[in-house]
Amino acid sequence: MNSLTQFFMDVSFLDLARAAASTIGRVIRYDSMKGNGFMISDRLFLTNNHIIHDCEVAKRSTVEFGYETDQNHCLKPTTRFSFAPDEFLMNSPKEKLDFTVVAVGDRVSGEGALSDFGFCPLKGNRDKHQLGEFVNIILHPGLDFKKIMFRNNQLIAQSEDVLHYCANMMSGSSGSPVFNDKFEPIALHHRGGSSRVAFTQDGKSGPTEIAEGIRISAIVKQIELERDRFNAKQRLLIDSALSCQFNYPSLMHTEKPSQM
Question: How far is CA 202 from the centre of its chain?
Answer without folding.
Answer: 28
